Automatic annotation (TrEMBL):
InterPro entries: Aldolase_TIM, DapA-like
Short name of one Pfam family: DHDPS
Keywords linked to the UniProt accession: Lyase
Protein's UniProt keywords contain Zinc-finger: no
Family: Belongs to the DapA family.
Protein name: Dihydrodipicolinate synthase family protein
Residues of the active site: 136 (proton donor/acceptor), 164 (schiff-base intermediate with substrate)
């Protein structure tokens, strides 16, 4: 299925049972909620998907299951977060075999590759597959920045099509558009900068709190796209305290707690992560409860 790299792409959480197995029933419940809300794709195995703690067979199961659930309605994108080029090529191959329509791809894990090594890594994987690739550019969390000069080299690979822009430098969107036009599709990767990024020219949003609030997230995107800026801003301003739960070291626990509150998830995480407790949990619950108490009535955003 073609990936357009526009619109709302949830970076879905991985659902676990109390005994640390994949919870495919709740996984389907959540993805069905995303589809009903009107999302444009599903991303698996990202930071929110607890990628570093997933077993290889679990990744295979998630891609196969998500592809079956989506059934051609939207593309399924698998994240690649590997320590070696060999491992990344194998992961891309398996993702395609299991039904993924595209890849999101981080730079090498653990080893802090320099610019030349990073470009070579991306090119090697891109040249090994015909799946379209979105570069995940998050130097804040992963310590390697894919610069504009590096993108100049990467676009020689036709299937490197998009960037998840998570540098936190919103002017980087303008720099990319000025230099590459629409050759590289830009999706905001930071919830608290999403609407601002779309106003600056990003065509999509790789979203986190969408996992718990899919309709509100899609409504913001659709309203902005339709030119209903005040309506989009009103929802976004309500959403901001919740969106700030995404820019936190415990974003997985935060968002899973929000999923519980909206009935489309559980708190189960994989160790060494543990569910929130004590004052920290109470603080996050207060934010979620305030959001639910003031949740806005949404317009008919799917028919704008």
């Amino acid at each position: 299925m073609k990936v357009n790299w526009e619109g709302v792409y949830p970076a879905v959480t991985t659902k676990f049972t109390a005994d640390d197995q994949l919870d495919l029933e709740m996984f389907e419940t959540n993805i069905q909620a995303q589809l009903s809300a009107g999302v444009d794709g599903i991303i698996l195995g990202g930071t929110l998907g607890e990628a570093s703690s997933l077993m290889e067979d679990e990744k295979d199961t998630l891609v196969k299951t998500a592809t079956e659930i989506c059934n051609g309605q939207v593309p399924v994108v698998m994240n690649i977060a590997e320590q070696t080029t060999k491992g990344a090529i194998l992961a891309a191959e398996k993702a395609q075999k299991n039904g993924a329509s595209g890849l999101m791809m981080l730079p090498p894990m653990r080893y802090k590759a320099d610019d030349r090594e990073t470009v070579t890594y991306y090119k090697a994987v891109a040249n090994s597959t015909d799946l379209p690739i979105m570069v995940y550019n998050n130097p804040v969390d992963y310590k390697i920045e894919v610069t504009l000069d590096m993108f100049e080299e990467l676009i020689a690979c036709e299937n490197i099509r998009a960037v998840k822009e998570s540098t936190r430098d919103i002017s980087n969107i303008t720099r990319m558009i000025n230099r590459f036009g629409d050759r590289i599709k830009i999706l905001s990767g930071v919830d608290t900068l999403a609407l601002e990024s779309m106003f600056m020219g990003a065509g999509g949003w790789v979203a986190g709190l969408v996992c718990a609030f899919p309709k509100e997230t899609v409504a913001i995107y659709r309203l902005k796209k339709a030119g209903c800026y005040e309506e989009a801003l009103e929802i976004y301003r309500w959403f901001l305290p919740l969106l700030e739960l995404d820019i936190n070291a415990k974003l997985v626990q935060n968002i899973k707690l929000a999923e519980v509150a909206t009935g489309i998830g559980t708190e189960h995480v994989r160790a060494p992560r543990l569910p929130l407790y004590g004052d920290e949990r109470e603080r996050v619950l207060r934010i979620i409860e305030e959001g639910l108490a003031t949740r806005p009535e949404l317009p008919d955003y799917l028919n704008l």
